[in-house]
Amino acid sequence: MALREIPVGVLFSKSGSYALIGQEGYWGTRIAIDEINASGLFDFRFLPVDGDPKGAAENYAVEADRMLREAGCRHIIGTQTSSSRKEVLPVLERGRGLLWYTTPYEGFESHDRVVYTGACPNQGVVPLFRHIVPEAGRRAFLLGSNYIWGWETNRIARELLAGCDGEVLGERYVAIGDENIDHLIAEIREKRPDFIFNNLIGESSYAFLRAMKQLAAEDSAYAPDRCPILSCNLTEAELPELGEAAVGLISTSTYFETLDTPENAAFLKRLEGLRGPDTAISSMFVAPYEAVWLLARAIAACRTEDPDIVLAELCRQSHATPLRDIRIDPQTQHAYLQPLVAVVEAPGAENGRSRFRILEKTPGPLAPDPYLVHYDPLDSVAGLPTEKPAADNGNTPKLRLVSS
């Protein structure tokens, strides 16, 4: 008997100024779909419906509408930027579809047509600042691409610094894809911050990191061990593009390829045959991959792809993926995730490419807090305060970083 087919939208920019992370999202989704279809575990198979918005925010709504109305999709995996997510919300409302948003983002949203499996602020920027302020100092220079992600993430950074009597020496933005960053380098050289918080994306970020590498060669005060650069979104997918320019950068994520667990070792071994032994695996690949497995498990449990019923099932209990069990908070529709902080190391002899070395991690997954209602920005970041427990059964892990 033929399996019933369920169309699923795959909405990532495989071209454009942030194509590297878009391609990661696309392949994470497509490989998961192929695995599920070949697994024999389900009485259905997913039919991928691809769309490439080419990095233009306005194209996302057009592609999402096509997926829902013409292709019959009820679920869409993807979008990368917050601007693109915002563009598809009216389409989802009108078509009663469900978006699986898998990218780390700035928070302050909880939409009933979205499942958020990327890190929100208490799982990203807060752990990053709790790591760096005691290590580097309290004088920061903030950068961002000129859209919601940059604005809001830097706003949170300002609040965190204000809570520990820190200082923002500068806050600058450039258009997505703009590589004209000489003025940023000049101002940073003049202001001499303790660290730089880089919320640029794609080609803008790559140009900036290369320029900072050159500045460090001219002035050792800007070497990574003296003026570290922080990121909430730089991943393994971009390290080959950057080479030595990424070495020393400190990033936060809920997945790094170097995560030392039996499940990750088995996952990476399996993917060697699919992507090659020299292809790095990043959170931009893993989060969509896990989202597809969550969707399959939820559909199998409730025996329908109806988005409202799937969402209720998803929030009722945790579901297994090949890497870990994931739980979705019913109040916010965000995932419980474990924050990790890591540094980019120079290429090693083992495989000749840069890798992230994990520095710190929380003891377990943290309850999502997209609006930071359980975090008091007046607490001292440098004092590593613990978070107030979320409104569940009182067993949610507090934000305590431990050495890896």
UniProtKB/TrEMBL annotation:
InterPro entries: AmiC_PBP1, Peripla_BP_I. Residues 383-404 are annotated as: Disordered. It holds the Pfam family Peripla_BP_5. PANTHER family: ALIPHATIC AMIDASE EXPRESSION-REGULATING PROTEIN, PTHR47628. This is Transporter substrate-binding domain-containing protein. It comes from Roseibium sediminicola.
